[in-house]
Automatic annotation (TrEMBL):
Pfam hit, one: ABC_tran
Family annotation (SUPFAM superfamilies): P-loop containing nucleoside triphosphate hydrolases
Record-linked InterPro entries: AAA+_ATPase, ABC_carbohydrate_import_ATPase, ABC_transporter-like_ATP-bd, ABC_transporter-like_CS, P-loop_NTPase
Keywords, alphabetical: ATP-binding, Cell membrane, Membrane, Nucleotide-binding, Repeat, Sugar transport, Translocase, Transport
Highest taxon of source: Bacteria
Molecular-function GO terms, alphabetical: ATP binding
Keyword flag Membrane: yes
Annotated protein name in UniProt: Sugar ABC transporter ATP-binding protein
Occurrences of domain ABC transporter (ranges): 1-220, 230-477
Length: 478
């Protein structure tokens, strides 16, 4: 990153946009005091903010992170006020703690109390606690980093109302997001970064979607979604009477060879539970067949051996090794092919290097530190490419993708869309879960809609409109 300059005024929302790896997180970390710049400074109302977390907070800067930094076993009140517990009286008086936190929770529209334990909250509720924690410091400026990436539509709307409220209160807001509709809705100006530099600083009203995308990626993106190939007549995946004894019940559907079958529904409707049960990550009843052969219950090894791939929604905790070399995350699924002897398990470094370079090329991975760098050094979009790429050493017969484009930029999304369509054209069947309505409608041959743990209906592409999906997802008739 070099020579980045921009301003955010009181009562203004400035969107910071750009592809993964453009430098947005670096800017956030410098403003928040977790990273010291080599040159330049952050000026807050005429005062130079100290380049550490405590100094940034003292200067009036707060940050709402995409990955919440909460203590799961503490109460909501304790998490909100954790940075203000220097007072002995506050620490020994839980009632005072709750009374102090209550109006902050009310300000963010939380439907839970200060005594709730964070571990028991949903992702959206935890994000509200993260915002309340930032507001407890009464900041003059606040940085939001992808605050709605893991939220449903209703929760996103609540977060956006909070941002509007902060703007009305005169707070300077820097808003980082990959959702272009949020940029249009919330911001007055857009600062676009590419390759560590500011390439545009313009009023939001002057930018349409195509122009903004072009500024972000440095080229024009193909409009819409790729054309879908025609599925084959034979059935790859057959699910009958699937239940997991907890969240989902009596689920039945088929996926044809080369078909992309979308699974839509509100957060908590059971989409992820269906995916995990099919792959063998959860106990289940019912019958699941792949190419006519029944899969054993709860046997992930057998599922992988049968040709099923699973791209988890939680890439950071379940998808790759953040502290280990990228090549280890890429080769982990197919270690047998890069061992000198399966009996001894001795790794052939040259074979692993060939395999991982081939997989990195397939997904167009950008790893500036090379494949020996840690997985945590990659941007979110490139991390997601690793999570997907590790399954591609041989074409999967079925690939299950749970929120495959969450928190990644438009350029990386377009590349993943193209890769999924290429896989379908080559004969892989795809089970796609997405909270982005346009995505699941644009990429799917058919859409199954979940409601309250059951499959409310299956819509052909010609029937699958936003209105029809929402009606089924909220319990309405088809």
């Amino acid at each position: 990153m070099k020579d980045v300059s921009f301003t955010v005024s009181s009562g203004e929302v400035v969107a910071l946009a750009g592809e993964n790896g453009a430098g947005k997180s670096t800017i956030k970390n410098i403003i928040g005091g977790t990273l010291r710049p080599d040159s330049g400074h952050v000026d807050l109302g005429g005062a130079i903010a100290t380049a550490d977390v405590k100094g940034a907070r003292h200067s009036g800067v707060a940050t709402v992170h995409q990955e919440t930094s909460l203590f799961p076993d503490l109460t909501v009140a304790e998490n909100i006020l954790i940075g203000h517990l220097g007072s002995r009286a506050m620490m020994v008086r839980p009632g005072r703690l709750r009374r102090t936190a209550a109006p902050i929770l009310q300000r963010v529209g939380a439907g839970f109390g200060p005594e709730a334990i964070v571990r028991d909250l949903s992702a959206g509720q935890r994000q509200l606690v993260e915002i309340a924690k930032a507001l407890a410091a009464e900041p003059r400026a606040i940085v939001f980093d992808e605050p709605t990436a893991s939220l449903n539509l209703a929760e996103r709307e609540l977060i956006m109302r909070i941002v509007d409220q902060l703007r009305g209160d005169g707070v300077a807001v820097l808003y980082i997001t990959h959702y272009l509709e949020e940029i249009t809705r919330l911001s007055q100006r857009v600062v676009v970064m590419r390759d560590g530099r500011v390439v545009a600083d313009r009023p939001t009203s002057e930018l349409d979607r195509a122009t903004l995308e072009s500024l972000m990626v440095g080229r024009e993106l193909a409009q819409g979604y790729p054309a879908l190939p025609q599925p084959r007549p034979e059935i790859t995946l057959s699910v009958r009477g699937l239940s997991d004894d907890a969240r989902v019940s009596d689920i039945s559907f088929d996926v044809a060879r080369g078909e992309i079958f979308g699974l839509a529904g509100l957060m908590g409707s059971g989409r992820t539970e269906v995916a995990r049960a099919v792959f063998g990550l959860a106990g289940r009843t019912g019958r699941i067949e792949l190419d006519g052969r029944r899969l054993r219950r709860g046997d992930v090894r057998a599922s992988i051996g049968a040709g099923i791939a699973f791209v988890t929604e939680d890439r950071r905790h379940e998808g790759l090794f953040l502290e280990r070399p990228i090549r280890e995350s890429l080769s982990i699924v197919d270690l047998g092919s890069v061992c000198r002897s399966r009996l001894i398990g001795r790794l052939d470094n040259r074979a692993e290097r060939r395999l991982t370079e081939e997989l990195a090329d397939k997904v167009r991975l950008v790893a500036r530190g090379g494949l020996n760098a840690g997985g945590g050094s990659l941007s979110g979009g490139n991390q997601q490419k690793v999570v997907l790429g590790k399954w591609l050493s041989r074409p999967p017969r079925l690939i299950i993708l749970d929120e495959p484009t969450r928190g990644i930029d438009v350029g990386a999304k377009a590349e993943i869309y193209r890769l999924l369509v290429d896989l379908a054209e080559a004969g892989s069947s795809i089970l796609l879960i997405s909270s982005e309505m346009e995505e699941v409608l644009g990429l799917s041959h058919r859409v199954g809609v979940m409601h309250d743990g059951r499959l409310a209906g299956v819509l052909d592409r010609s029937q699958a409109t936003q209105e029809a999906v929402i009606r089924l997802a909220t319990g309405g008739a088809r």
